[in-house]
Amino acid sequence: MINCRKWLREWLGRIKSPSAGSHIDFLKKGGIPWTPGYNEYKWKAIQETICAKDFGERVSTPRFGYRIDERVVELPWLLSRLPEGPGVLLDAGSALNHRSLLVHPKLAEKRLFISTLAPEAWNFCERGVSYVYEDLRQTCFREDFFDWIACISTLEHVGLDNTFLYTSDSGKKETDAGAYLPLIQMFRTRLKKGGRLFLSVPFGRPKNHGWFQVFNGAMLDGLSAQFAPAEVQETIFMYGDDRWSKASRMSAREALCYDINIDQTAAPDHCAFSRAVACLELRK
Fold first, then answer.
1. How far, in Å, CA of 10 to CA of 28, rounded?
2. Model-level pTM?
3. DSSP per-residue letters across 148-209
4. Mapped to the 3 state alphabet, what secondary structure does 106-157 carry?
5. Dihedral of CA 216/186/192/90: which sign?
6. Count of CB atoms within 10 A of residue 50's CB?
7. What CATH number is given to the structural domain containing 89?
8. Domain count along the chain
9. What pairing do the DSSP bridges indicate for beta strands 146-152 and 207-208?
10. Which of the residues 91, 127, 255, 279 could staple to 96 if both were Cys, CB 3.0 to 4.6 A apart?
């Protein structure tokens, strides 16, 4: 049984406190995503969700994830599915590289490797996290090594222009929208028998945005076939009416992404980024 209260106290004691009332000010000033206070507001909501007893019920409540990007469903989904106890975990893409996540009880006992293209502004080596800076498609890890692999909102960037936000390496300015498929096979070979791959991608009407792409149902089926899982579980989340909720492929098939980096102004419905996201759990 996870002692969430103890974990939350540790998290609150370790992070740098944001300016007083910043998340409250964010809401008072209209709650427009990516404006001052948004980050504090977002991570406060993520912590509360991760610590909730039943994520499945919480995600169905009114105004859940109000004006927050898809991390508010992706990360709680991952931690709700990840088993407790020791084991070896690969974070493929560095979604877990936040102190507020690394102190969570489900990660505390695990041997964690983070693989990403380039160093970030912070690392947590003191917590025993191992960092590898590489192109995942040419990974250094041996086969049958990991118990679990988490690839959260990373697959959609593979083979596209990663110089836009993630690296200064001009060799990573690519245009190969199908480059993620060989990576799926790599993930499979690096997992132990019975190991699980947890992945999430933007879902809806397929579109290549240059630095990421949106997946549709056929693309999900293709990557699942590439992995050839013994078991697959799929959950679709969609943003609408000021909240995140569970959805079907059919209801989310026309969902679009709002890209603050390109559009520069707030979306009419104040969607922060993806309007739908697909989360897959694939067992080898």
1. 29
2. 0.90
3. EEEEES-GGGTTSBTTTTT---GGGB---TTTHHHHHHHHHHHEEEEEEEEEEEEBSS-EE-
4. HHHCCEEEEEECCCCCCCCHHHCCEEEECCHHHCCCCCCCEEEEEEECCHHH
5. negative
6. 23
7. 3.40.50.150
8. 1
9. unpaired
10. 91
Give pLDDT, residue 57: 86
Q: Which two tokens stand for residue 243?
A: 């909240």
Can you say how many angstroms the Cα of residue 4 is from the centroid of all Cα atoms in its chain? 21
Residues paired with 224 in a beta bridge: none
Between CA 35 and CA 33 the distance in angstroms is 6
What residue numbers bound the domain in which 239 lies? 4-13+20-283
What's the CA gap between 251 and 32, in Å, rounded? 26
Residue 131 tokens, joined: 């960092």
Q: Residue 24 pLDDT more than 60?
A: yes
